[in-house]
Amino acid sequence: MEKTLFKKIADKEIPAEIVYEDNQCVAFRDVNPQAPTHVLVIPREPIPSLDKLAAENAALLGHLWLVIRDVARQEGIAEGGYRVVVNCGEDGGQTVDHLHFHILGGRSLQWPPG
Ligand code: 5GP
């Protein structure tokens, strides 16, 4: 199966500014940032979307949330506040079929999004 773009980033086949990585996940800066801080957190396992998560992914998901918390602290946005977004499927605006969490911060974010 063809590797996803994000799997290629995780495997260092495509360059990206990685801000954190471990054996389960990678966090890197979005190439088209929508806020002063815009980091994507992905599992190394190429799960296509939130909808494709399985019960056995529960521990991985817990780990990802803790990494998101730590990356936000590392980026200096935890105190001011930030947003975590997961786009799922076509109507959700998902463009890369590899589960990813957007961490957005460093400015006041509007709600609801468009
Ligand atoms: P989605 O729309 O699927 O939720 O988000 C995909 C995100 O990936 C977008 O914010 C887009 O800017 C980012 N992106 C797409 N291609 C690349 C790339 O090659 N490198 C990086 N760092 N980000 C990318």
TrEMBL record:
It is an enzyme of class 3 (hydrolase). Its EC number is 3.-.-.-. The keyword Nuclease does not apply. GO terms for molecular function: hydrolase activity. A motif (Histidine triad motif) lies at residues 98-102. The active site is at H100. SUPFAM superfamilies: HIT-like (SSF54197). This is HIT-like protein. Keywords: Hydrolase. PROSITE patterns: HIT_1, HIT_2. It comes from Bythopirellula polymerisocia. Residues 5-114 form the HIT domain. Gene3D superfamilies: HIT-like.
